[in-house]
Every structure is written in structure tokens, then in C-alpha cells.
Amino acid sequence: MEYSRNMDAKKTPMPCQEPNVRNKNFGEVALGYTEEMAINEARRCLNCKNKPCKTKCPVGIDIPAFISAVAVGDFEAAYLELTKYTALPAVCGRVCPQEVQCESVCVRGIKGEAVGIGRLERFVADWYRKNGKKEVLKPISNGKKVAVIGSGPAGLTTAGDLAKKGYEVTVFEALHLAGGVLAYGIPEFRLPKDIVKAEIKTLEDLGVQICTNTVIGKTLTIDELMEMGYEAVFIGSGAGLPRFMGIKGESLNGVYSANEFLTRINLMKAYQPESKTPVHRGKKVAVVGGGNVAMDAARCAKRLGADEVYIVYRRSMNELPARVEEVEHAEEEGIIFKTLVNPTEIIGDENGYVKGLKAVKMELGEPDESGRRRPVVLEGSEFELEVDSVIMSIGTSPNPLIRSTTPGLETNKWGCLVVRDESGLTSREAVYAGGDAVSGAATVILAMGAGKNAAAAIDEYLKNK
Amino acid sequence: MTKIVEKQKLNETVTKMVVEAPLVAKKAEPGQFIIFRAKEDSERVPLTIADYDREKGTVTIIFQIVGEATMELNSLNVGDYIHDFVGPLGNPSELDGIKKVAVIGGGVGSAIAFPVAKKLCALGAEVHAIIGFRNKDLVILENEFEKVSDKLVIMTDDGSYGTKGLVTNALKELIEQGNSYDEVIAIGPLVMMKFVCNLTKEYGIKTTVSMNPIMIDGTGMCGGCRLTVGGETKFACVDGPDFDGHLIDFDEAMKRGSVYKNFEGKKREESCNLLKAGEGK
Question: Which domain holds residue B120?
Fold first, then answer.
């Protein structure tokens, strides 16, 4: 089909809920392209021969190939192209940091905006969920059992890839619901839980068994899984252990880890009036940290009815690790950014509830080992911020439950599992790992990339065994 | 889904349930806990394991009906299924090497103290059990404790059964009588554990307490269960639930324990007449 290229320098705008409407509800912020918008945006792609975008995708999606299919309105073909590489396209299209990956090297980005690759990926996945063929061809079993620990992005990707190859895969999940960070961490307004459910259902249709309420390291150990006949194990248990700053007042009522706050809201649905799980609804909330999780927590707090929500971050706006779109959305929704500020103490009232945050102002000094300029305290700049709730979002570490119950599993000083190379092979034979459990807290797509590599390595190992 | 195979009302507000949970039963040790959700939309709540039978594959839980979650659990009967039941979580109590011990249970905490006493008895320790209740109607597990302890003292606040007074009175008396304990293990309301610890500090007796704070996942993920122990932040779910009682900041733990009191109260107002009846007694 012949079509003329769309030479508009800007992306086709994404329809969104109005900021002052959406900051009071948990419905999805970005509403998604219509078919017409998607075709229009897809026609901005130059279909470059050397495909720079593809080289920057952690799971190596042939981006021009799927976009070409969208450009001619063949959305089903686009979906089939995408799912050669990703088991979770509806998720990636929403939560990947495209601006530092595929879209960062898009040729259209040189004289204008990159092609909206993430928006198109999302469109295709959503279109297929509504219109695509429902029957899935269940692969013929090869009789080999593989255990996957953790049902987050790494585990689900490994499970999906291995199931497609005929392995009998069981995914073990500690919580009562599958999805890992997609279920407990990322809020409904950014990633609707029905979409997560649908993506998991697709895997179940491929024959993947999901075993919830099973804590590996407690209910069962990796050695017991091996005794049960699993020939290989993939550990994708994430980095779920929240860090605190170690400042005074962190045990006051009204101080949450971002993990707890978000889990109450996302997994336990505490934002719904009929929910049986409570959450402290602060009126003036400080979220400490500048990553995606901090943005999620801040925007949740706003939606729970806070009058003022602050992002308290020790570097400047330029160093915020969050996705650009999340920062923009947060600003639009009225989140107040207190950058170059570092908390020193949380102040409580006589009943043990938060009533303020003591902090100091910072300035940027010389670059540190991460290449970012190191924040340095401005002497005499101490001040108090009146808040009734503080949410600590300064990172997470891998959970020790598995490493402490699996002899011979090597870890580094941060508690991350040590893997030999890209394959994800750990210091134990037939035990592979990937995602945040190896890298420490990172992104959904990097975890998926690791899961994909591990699945290929497990296949190779079991074929030659 | 976890099937309930036995249910028994121990008193007006305390229920015992035996459930089919073979994987939990296989691994469970005294001191460990499970997390349950009675129904699909229920809250996640931790409960310390009261007993287990590895051969039958069953686990016993004993709970006090204090809020909506335990009320929902209590509404289930033999043959019904608990929607979610996960464990065993936390670290087992460290009981090896104890020769003479006082095991103290307060109220429904006695249900958690029981498997500890039972295991100590099996390990050959001399067990003195002290269990305390508000009144005669609330006494539970008397026969069970009788079987596993060399001495059993029952205390009631109003003297309607056993001896009138607090568990600390009984402990003090036993110590004064010349009993020298390697360790005191106290499980019950925070305020009781605090006063037991204050007493044993005077006598320099090592004291272990079991903490059961508010938590969600029970695997170290939420950090909601954090406590200050010896000036350091610890997570009850993965670092405990047993801790050196002399190092715990009980006052802070009590404040943290009441954070959702208003929410609980409101929910209770909304839906429960059973508890109001119970409280009226």
C-alpha cells in the first residue's frame, strides 16, 4: 500500500485526561491513540535501513517492522511482529523510558520529535486486546519443567519465552496476585491493572502455571524445587526491600516506604472507599526521592486528596531519574518540586504522628562516580516544611529470603545475585537470575531484557543436557 | 485456597481453626507466622502459628476477633476455604540449649506461646508457664499448657479464676522463690511484654518477645512492620518476629500499632454487632 510520509516535526499528540480532573481520580491519564492517530503517527517513521531504534531496545524489537504494519492499518500483523520480541507490549508501551532508549536515536528526533514508538506499541497491544483473535495455540510440551520465581516483568518474560518453546513453566509468586511491581507498584492511572491481568492471562493460555501465595525461600526452597523435578530455575524476585534514610523520626506514624504506600493503594486498592485495607491520607505530603516510584507515590497522594504534595529531591530538576513524561504529568497535576533539598529529620507530635520535615538546601558540586554532580549541603540552610505525611522513595534492595536459603548462591555486597554473563547463570548450576534481583532497582524493560536472555540460555542448557 | 477442617470457639472472641496447608505444615516451627486473607477483597493480616501437624498436613491458627479481617475469617466454617494463606514466614524461635524457662502468654498471645512451650517441653527443658487473662470466661488452652509444662500458673485480672493479678506478679513470685531461668519468653499485648521486660531487666534474665505489628506482605517488602531494636530499625517480618525484649522500644511500637485505630473503629461501627456484644460483657 502506497502512502505519503507524515513530515510533521511533532508527535501526534496523545489524548489525556485534563490535569485538574485526573488528579482526583485513578483512571488512566493517557487515553491512547485512535486508529487514525496511530496510522498518522506511524507514517512519520522513515523506515531506516540500519534501524538505530532497534539497537537501543533491551528486547530488540524490530521497531520499523511493526510500525510499517501500523502505517498501512494492519494492526494484527503489527501485534504479531511485536510479540515475537515482547510478552508484555501493553505494559512496555506505557512504562518504558523510550526517551533514553529507542526514541533517543530516532532519526526524526534530529530535526523535531522522535516517532512516538511507545505510543504506537501501546496502541497495537490495546487494539489487539479488543479486536484480535482470542484463541492461542498452546505449544506442544517438551516434557521439561522450569520454575520461575517471581511474577514481575523478568519472570513473566522468561516464562512466556520458555512456554512458547514447549517448556512446562510454573511461576511462583509470594503475594496473592501475580504481576510483581506491575501489580503492587505502578499505579492504576499509569498502568491499569486489567491490562496486567490480560497480559498474564495470555501467558496462562500458553500453558504457564501461576502459583501464588508461595514464598520461595520459606514455603519451598530452590533445592526442593529441583527435587520436585524442575530442571532449571529462574530467579526474578526483584528488589523489594525498601531503604530508609536512617534519619530521626522515620518510625513516626505517617511515614511510609513508597513500597508500602503504593502496595496499599495498588495491590490492596486502598483508594477505593469500600477497600478493607486502610491508608493514611495526608493533607500535606512530602515524597523523598526523584525516580518513577517517587512520581507515582506523589501523584497517588494527590489523588487521595492531599492539598499539597512535595517531591523532595537532593539534586536538581535536570538529574531527576524519573521518565520525562512522568515529571511533566506530575507538574501538570500540581505536584510541587522542592529540588536541591535533603531531609535531615522528621518531626513528630506528642502522639507519634508526623508534623513536619526538617531539611537542608543543597548545591551541586563535582561529578560523582555516577557521573552526576554530587549534591553538597549549603551551610546554615536548614528549614522546616510543614507536612503530615512522609513517603520515602529512595530506592530498594534485593530481598534476602532466597539468598539466605540457597546454599552456593553468590551475591555481592549489595545483596544482588551475581551472574556469570548475559545468560543470567548464577554460581549454581541450572539456576539463572535476572531483573532487579541482579541489577538492583532498575526498569521494567531492563528486567524483561534479562528475562529474555535467561530464557534463551535455559533453553540452550536444557537442550544440551 | 485453604480448606478449614476444624473450627472451635475457645471463648466469646477467640476462635481456633485447623486448616489444610501441607506445605506450611511441613516447614512450620514455633515462632513463625502466616498471612491470611479471608476473602478475595480482604486485608492481609499476619497470625502466628499456634500448632502444626506435619503428618496430617494441617496448621492451627488461633485468633481474637478484633477487626473486620478477623471477623471475616470467623464467618467461615468447616469445609469453607480461606482465600489466601501463605507461610511459614519469619524466623523460628531459637529454643535450643534452654534448660529452664518461664513461658508467659497474655490473652490470645497464649495461643502463640503454646507451641513454644510444647517445643521446649519436647526438647527436655523445665517449663514454667504463666498465662494471664482478663477473667475466667476468657481462659484458653489450659489443658494444652498443662500437658507441656512442669508448672502452670493461671492469672486473671479480676481473680475469677486462678490467681488474681498480672502475669508479672506471678513471674516475680516464681523468681523470688528461687527459680533461676535461663530465659523468659513473653508473648502477649505490647504493654504486658513491656512490663515483663522491665521486671526481668531488674533480675538480669534474658527475655525474648514475639512482635506482631501491622504488615502487608510479610516478606520484607513494605517495611510497615519496622521496629526500633537497640537503636536500629528492624523489620519484624524478616528480622523477627522474636527479638530481645530488653532492646525493644515498646512505646514507639505501641504508637505504631494504633495508627489505623480510627479506620478500624469506623469499619467496626459499620458492620459488626458481634463485637459490640462481646465488648458489652
Answer: 100-257
